[in-house]
Please model this.
Amino acid sequence: MSSKKTPKKIKINKPKVMILSGYGLNCEEETKFAFERAGGIGEIVHINDLIAKPKMLGEFQILAFPGGFSYGDDTGSGKAYANKLKNHLGKEINEFLSRDTLAIGICNGFQIMTNLGILPGALTHNKNAQYIDRWVDLAIPSSPAKGRVGRGFSPWLVGIKKISLPIAHGEGRYLIDSKKYKEMLKKKEIAFTYTKGDICKFQNLEANPNGANYDIAGILGYNGRVLGMMPHPERAQFFHHSPLWQLKKKDPFDRFDKLTASKQRARKDEGEGLILFKNAINYFRK
Amino acid sequence: MISRLYVTQKGEDSRNRLFLKSWNTLGLKGKVSKVFLVDSYLFDSSFSQPELIKTAEALTNPILEKFSIDKLPDGLKFSYIIEIGFLPGVTDNIAHTAHETISDLLHLNEENKFEVYTSKVFLISGTVKLDDVKKIAGTLYNPLIERANIFSLKEIKSQNNLPLQIPKVVLLDKKPVICVSLSVPDSELTKIGKDGILGEDGICRGPLALDLESMKAIQAYFNKLGRDPRDIELEALAQTWSEHCKHTIFAGPIDDIKDGLYKTYIKGATNKIRAQKGNSDFCVSVFSDNSGGIIFDDDYLVTHKVETHNSPSALDPFGGAITGIVGVNRDTIGFGLGAKPVANLYGFCFGNPEDNRALYKDKNLTHKMLSPKRIMAGVIKGVNVGGNCSGIPTVSGFVKYDDRFRGKPLVFVGTVGIIPKKINGKLSHEKQAQLGDYIVVVGGRVGADGIHGATFSSVVMDSTSPATAVQIGDPITQKKLSDAIVKEARKMDLYNSLTDNGAGGISCSIAEMAKECGGAKVMLEKVPLKYPGLSPWQIWISESQERMTLAIPKKKWEVFKKLMESRGVEATIVGEFTDSGKCIVDFNGKEIMNISMDFLHDGLPQKHLKSSTLEILTNPPLNKSKAKGEINFTKTLEKMLADKNLSGFSFISNQYDYEVQAGSVLKPISGRGRINTDAQVFRPVLSSKKGVALSFALYPSYSELSPYDMAGCAIDTAIRNAICAGAKLSHLAILDNFCWCSSYEKERLAQLIKSLQACYDYSVGFGTPFISGKDSMFNDFKGYDAKGNPVAISIPPTLLISAIGVVPDIYKTVSPEFKNFGDIIYLLGETLDEFGGSEFSKIIGDIHLPLKGTPQEGNNSSVPKVNLEKNLKTYGIVEQAISNELISSAISVGSGGLAIALSKASVGGMLGCNLSLRGFASQSTETILFSESQGRIVVTVAKENVKKFEKLAKEIVCNKLGVVTKDGKFTITDAKNKKVVDTTVKKLSVAYHSFSNKMK
Model:
């Protein structure tokens, strides 16, 4: 499925983003907020409204499965919501993904995507069998050298070499067999891996929070147009989200009225996570 | 036909390892070598084999899991099986989801009835015998809500399947309504009030918690009507009049306080403050609604409510806590026209988790109390599931331990909400059910769960405590309901009023809303039920969760109904609001209840309570002669920091999602060293740069010594914590939660009055109005120890003060940890010799508060006193310094004193400090380090800001203590330049996190 050719591009200045909701998904509002800050037009659509009018998907360029606790994780995280999508919207989702579109699944949304079969692998209970809220550092294994956008490189990840984002999940341990993993690696379908970066060093945390195979935190499909990830970029869209912000807000050069990059960012109220949303919007603008 | 599906993990299941680990610490005779956890689904259906397989496939993730139908999974060895399932009628959320998945998958409608029941199946192998297995099973289930079946390999080998028995509710046919004769002697009246109505089966139905006076008032009312009351009428009165709902102790006259405690001291304070504030009054809706509401900015109100769920949590910690948190969410959704929950908070008071004493509710030692450890684990998990599943960040919380919480834990849960000031041109905090509006119930269905919850929490817990008072929450049903109301129906202007169904169920919610227009008529048979066979009185008072009641204009019903259907929310018309002045209930066309609104709401006879003069218990004064030569301050500090009442509790904070909704500014965990913060800040409206600050404080260890100062310190500390984070005193409100014990005892009432006087004095003094509150007055346990000796445990009188304030600019928020080496450390505020009830006096040895103390001679001067005038000045200076961005960190000095605050700031920043007590020559070292004097704040200031800061701080007591260092050493020298504390931030960090790490 991921070998499908990306169709021809169309230019859109304000792409439309559908953010699904209902049955316990709960990050739709802040995800919409992030897409709109990035320049898109966000619309929260209840799954039952989409089932009632499946054609609606045709008007959108980006589809987001936000985080949450669909069906309370009962019968397994993401499973029940994915079943509902499969029962009613399988064809429409396939059609949507065959167009020049983008899709993202965050946390529970990622779990839904793997249960749907849009992305390979599966997500299961963390190795400590507990829900964890903390920040992680992420590497982008397929990031081209010198930050240039290589061929087939995911539009979601343009310009990102490393990033720190929060996680909050009980079932985020990504499982994949070694054969499939090698295949994905070759096809540059590993989006994010947990690594030891600023946050882990700062708070003395282990890099991989949940025991995921090969430290995988996020993966790609459909030539990089579809991204599934456990960390929450929408919860890192403001500068004050980072556990480091209290330290970074102090600027030693303030006395000379020079603005460092972090100070500028603070002024603009932006956090690292917003880059992903901007990338998605920019994909349709260029 | 009944069939059973087993779903088994293919690979390693991380949960199994944890079970193995905990079981092998139980002191079993044998050893468990392996455990497999298998999910079981029992279907009572007419599914064909292909349908069953299709179902199984939908419930299995082929990468992670495999399934088998009517045979145990292959290849798993075991010697015993434990199956844990729910008792009939208990909410089974997984079954509920499976049911929905299957209906959708097989295109089944209402007529294709089938049932699903889930259970957890543990396959155990090792050298364990039946005794051991029973012991293990005992840790896995709560007999009040669950059942455990144990099977040996031999027993099921031939069938290779567990028995196909379903936990279906079967209720016997009963007379729907019985009349209760009240023409009986007083002794009989008393008995009915205490034990409840005698059922047809000869068993009392459970406490009405009505005393003789109340029963006589009811007797007189029905005498006048010339008839006997029906059971539903008595039950309804018992609910509405319960201490839990009416708060008689706070409402009625006491001593010479004619208007009662609440009106005089709480509401009285708020009224006075509001009048003083005049145009800058920020209160909008206080004490009248489900939550209290204040102004957030020009466009929004912010609401707050804190509840307790102590009694249910003592019986079933998980169920009690989850229904607590999900229930208080409904107090937000039920504010005005429906506020959106934006933050949860929790507060737990537990017995010592290492306490293994067995306690029983009955003399025959058959009803064993759960251990503090079990209660703690269940409560923590309940808030975890309730909060996380609802998509509401759990931003704030605390945990305290005391042996006196062994009989009843305290479980505080709170929710902050946000609501536009105006919705569709109407003020959002106003609502009124109109004559002719439909009474509509939305959300979950009604079962026998949660019956007598309100009356039960109004009495002492003993062996008669009703098991049906326990319920399990279903956060997803509520999430669907909440989203549909707050995010959609509200905007569409589809209802005139709404309220939460909490204590007393619809009997209370409908009766409350009926006040808005003057009456109600209910058709009780319309209420959707979980299973048939419930009696009308049960339907009327059941506290089944996740329900709200709305008043919907007739012409808007169709649109509303359609919206709810499309959101998977059940909505049903159960009656109509009237202006008859009566609350009338019909059942299948026959009137079964007819009580005037006046009597229902105001018929409760007022009690005139009397308190005694207060004999104050006293902590023996600190034995300084002994202390001086012997105390090793370094060791004492490290020991205190490792104490569970002062140390970190990230094992709780980190399993709660505190970042959902993307508003986190000052998190519950902060800094390099991950300390727990005393106040938190978040951004409820993402398009605004204003924030909300939350904080709390309580000092149960002061209350037996000086209840007045206990309350004063709680208010001062809650305010101080919020100020340190960046809140403004001029835009700060507080909430009270009184958890008392044996409240009809005169001494307890005397303590209550003292603490309320302090509430008035300090809230008025600080100008921080009370906006909402709740009380729980009977936190006592009466039972027996393992030898059958009677045991009585009462909690220490506990007052939780929660503060909520508005932060003008979130980017000026200050966190508590040290930031940069070279920053100068100051102590603001005055330190006095105040050790009464302090953590230091508990730690250094022979000074303990007795479980139930005996009055002693002596003075109570050593409990910290709050100096309003000085503290107001200090807080004003800190506010200004934060506003001018002069401060790098600020931490409030509270329990444990200055040394603890400094250690936490140091651990938080993982930076050392070099401190000197030169400025305190007139005081002893232990006083400076460990006294709990109020009104003090430790701040750090970057060198370039020192001048400006010192100028600002001129008017207040401000002592320069030293400097933040990068060498990681934590040293304090006394007034004579002698090193009294010499340790490192690493050691302090280990101590600070040790308890939490042990609890992980």
